[in-house]
Amino acid sequence: MVKSLLQMKFKFLPAFSLLLISSCSLNYGRDINSESSIPELSFSNANFRRIENGKEKIVMSAEKLEQYKADNASFAKNVQFKSFDSDGKTEAEGSCGLFSADTKEKKYGLYKDIKLHLDSQEMDIEAQALRYNAKTEQLTSERDSEVKIKNKDIQTSGRGFSASTMSNSYAFMYEVEGEVHTEQEKTEARPEEKK
């Protein structure tokens, strides 16, 4: 039962991957004296819109955004975003404290107070660290990082989170707990037999 609970459908990943591919983030781990420590582009209070086929696909804002040409890296601080489907309806929206992107390797990371809301799934996700690999289409957390998932029927949390866009499912590998609410069928009371 626990295994089936943990391998539920996870259909938002294609929209989430589109968001990650078009977004950017701040690199605090660079050497101060190296050329790669100086961003090619740096923006404060930046607002972005991505338009595809004349329609708005993604809206993103960041307190600070830096791009580094030498290693195809981008970093952002205090990011808020929203993605839209082809009909203009909101697919997903969320925020995070830090975002990183390695566009060459197609690897992306969200960090610090991550909150995602997936409209089509009526699902909310909260975490402190998530990574997405666009080549393998995998969204994962660190082994010890807790991820919380809530929707109308399920409230669960666990560690060792992984999700796949290929199988449209997700799982926790460690320390899972939560609640599943099911609607009970209404049964009509039988009338008492007359004696």
Put the structure in a nutshell.
The chain has 195 residues and is mostly beta strands. It is built from 2 helices and 10 strands, in the order ααββββββββββ.
Describe this protein's structure.
By secondary structure, the protein is mainly beta. The chain contains 2 helices and 10 strands, in the order ααββββββββββ. Strands 1, 2, 3, 4, 5, 6, 7, 8, 9 and 10 form a 10-stranded antiparallel β-sheet that branches. The longest helix is centred in the N-terminal third of the chain and has 9 residues, at 13-21. It starts with a helix and ends in a 15-residue tail after the last strand. Mean pLDDT is 78; it is low at 1-25 and 185-190.
How do the helices and strands line up, and which of them pair or pack?
Layout: H1 2-6, H2 13-21, E1 41-52, E2 55-68, E3 73-84, E4 90-102, E5 107-118, E6 123-133, E7 138-140, E8 146-150, E9 154-164, E10 169-180
Antiparallel strand pairs: 1-2, 2-3, 3-4, 4-5, 5-6, 6-7, 6-8, 7-9, 8-9, 9-10
Keywords:
single chain, 195 residues, mainly beta, 10-stranded antiparallel β-sheet, 2 helices, 10 strands
